[in-house]
Amino acid sequence: MSFAPNSTRPTPGLPANHTPVRLAVPRVLVVEDEMTVAMLIEDMVSELAYDVAAVVPRLEDAMRLLDSETFDLAMLDVHLNGKTVFPFAAELEARDIPFLFATAYGPRGIPEEFRGHIVLQKPFGPVELRRALIELCGHVPS
To answer: Of 3, 17, 37, 101, whose CB is crowded by the most CB atoms within 10 A?
Structure first.
């Protein structure tokens, strides 16, 4: 028995030309180079009923995902293996993809050009993460 959707047969109760719609659960890209921190963030994001699109540890990995349409918003660690995440942040901004920074440095570690974005100071818990993600989903950087 196959559980794969059969595109040739219409779904009972729906018009034959019905287009399936993905549920609007935001897909979060986590850009974090510390694997234990990444795993904690991934668990918290999942527990808060968001989808984790991917967890990537390097700037180059994140850059490859820019035009993939696999994520709706991003959580960015500022320092990634000796590089900063700001080139990726600039690309997200240019594409109007919402993002926040998660850093131990807090807002003082964010350049002026990105100060309009949400900054979660590490360490943070599920309450702070939930608040930030809710704000991010409706957040337009100033």
So the answer is: 101
